[in-house]
Amino acid sequence: MRILITNDDGINAPGLEVLAEIATELAGPRGEVWTVAPAFEQSGVAHSISYTHPTMIARLAERRYAAEGSPADCVLAAVADVMAETPPDLVLSGVNRGNNAGENAMYSGTIGGAMEAALQGLPAIALSQYLGPETADLADPFETARRHGAAVIRRLLDHGDWTSDEDFRLFYNVNFPPVPASAVKGVRVAPQGRRQGTRFGAVPFTAPNGRRFMWVSGGSQLAPAREGSDVAVNMAGFVSVTPMRADLTCHLSLERLAQALDGEPGANRHKEEVSGT
């Protein structure tokens, strides 16, 4: 198996070393692990691409490259250049330092890399390590992902939906819980949730030169979310697996909205005025 790994924490991030270990185990002695990762940290860039300026790509070692761009840029660099003649069989993005469950998924460069791989027609999995009070004193904060990562991916490869005939190919978001590896209770397939009573915000400040800036602030990662969601199962000690795709359509609303709006602009309003309803 030929595996491409990337991340959003940067080429020197410890989570990428963990992912390289996982990928090497999965690829086997006859496989290959290729790295194309951001030269600098790209946390929070989501699925952005460097559309308006070029991205420099540097070869650091055999099968190891750094790109001055986002995780999605890195996947594009691999597909179009670095691995153009030998495309990957699987793309893994992570292991992110911190969770990408709940609303975090919308901002995550880790997920952005996996999403771009799926858009390129490649099987892809994003992996993140939830941190919390129980992981704070661990010698290796990634021990849960390190110990359980390969097994979870193997199960996904065996049982996940990897068909590529849909408009938007599925990819998978995996979050390892904020507990020691020995305390993991199992795996749960869960929908994306949202933490209650917390959200991202901004903190403005004035620099010594009088200019105004802001820092983006995150909300509590320990806030509760609805039962059965990725956040909830992670907090309960389970690895969460969430199938995703690059389709933001709210399919539940399509039929109802179509009944109200389909047709000529203003048609339904005119009908209501004529009928007096």
From TrEMBL:
Keyword Iron-sulfur: no
Cofactor note text: Binds 1 divalent metal cation per subunit.
EC numbers for this chain: 3.1.3.5
Catalytic activity: a ribonucleoside 5'-phosphate + H2O = a ribonucleoside + phosphate
UniProt keyword DNA repair, yes or no: no
Annotated keywords: Cytoplasm, Hydrolase, Metal-binding, Nucleotide-binding
Ranges of residues in domain Survival protein SurE-like phosphatase/nucleotidase: 3-196
Residues annotated for a divalent metal cation binding in this entry: D8, D9, S43, N96
MF terms (GO), sorted A to Z: 3'-nucleotidase activity
Cofactor field: a divalent metal cation
Localization per record: Cytoplasm
Cited function: Nucleotidase that shows phosphatase activity on nucleoside 5'-monophosphates.
Family according to the record: Belongs to the SurE nucleotidase family.
Protein name (database record): 5'-nucleotidase SurE
Native species: Paracoccus marinaquae
Originating gene: surE
